[in-house]
Predict the structure.
Amino acid sequence: MRGFVLFDRYDNNHWLNRVLNVAKRIVNNWMIIVPVLSLFLVVFYYVRQFGTTIGPVKQSEGDYAAFGQFGDYFGGVLNPLLAFINIALLAYYQKTSIAKSAEKDVLFRMIELQRQIVNGIELRTRVRRAYVQNEIGSDLTTQMDRDEVHEVNSGIRAFWVFDREIMEMYKSRNLSVEDSSVNRLKVLVDVYCSYFHEVFKKQYLAHYFRNLYLIYKMLDDSDVFSDSEKLKYAKIVRAQMSHLELKLLYLNCKLGDGQAFQKYVGKFDLLEWIDDGDFDNYDSAFEVSSVIKADIMSWSTSQANSHKS
């Protein structure tokens, strides 16, 4: 019985989608459909009233005259009405075109701002530099002397630093072999949360993800872009992101403040190229797991279900 109910529900949804698609095509092509339909109705009425004879027949000359008078009256009323409709449509489409152009301009300005945010990230890390010192006046000896220097990493190079430091924090947890992939992911998310809030990286990452979130929110809320245009521009924004940025996007979506981003990750399929193997530098166990990919897919499924409802 349950199978019949599911089949009936699927069948109803299938027909509903077909009806909606037909209605959408009619709406998109109404400027062609309405004139053709009007011409068909006039020809149909003429054939029904006078048959297929071209020109007036003696016994129906009065009907032809009445039909001609009606045509003059109808044309006199319809022509100004059609002219008004044309002007209204022209104004509407011009307004829509201007609104779409303005919103597209805002979108690309925000993309440019995102690039500036990335280039503005500057991390100073301490590294040990080795150099060779020769003793003068004695046998040639080599002495390795090490001191600490500050290395500046800016732009996309800063994300390599983020990734390396998160990896080092994760490995310091010393997980046992018996830990499951689910538990390892929980530890990784906890490490990223500590890194984000306690290692003072929030000043960089919060600004970066906040602007990125607003880009996708603006796209999703737009009433001038079609669904296909929204998806196209979402892919353009994603194309500006490196693989490391996409990895951190996943981890950021696991934070309490970042969970709202899951909606757009699922809707626009932003992490379709990310899977567990991309995190194997943190833990080799991720190379053979599927917990991260399943988590990402659940966001897409959630968006698909909310769209249907």
Remarks:
- Residues 61-120 form the longest helix (60 residues).
- Residues 1-10, 131-145 have pLDDT under 50 and may be disordered.
- Strands lie at 122-133, 143-154.
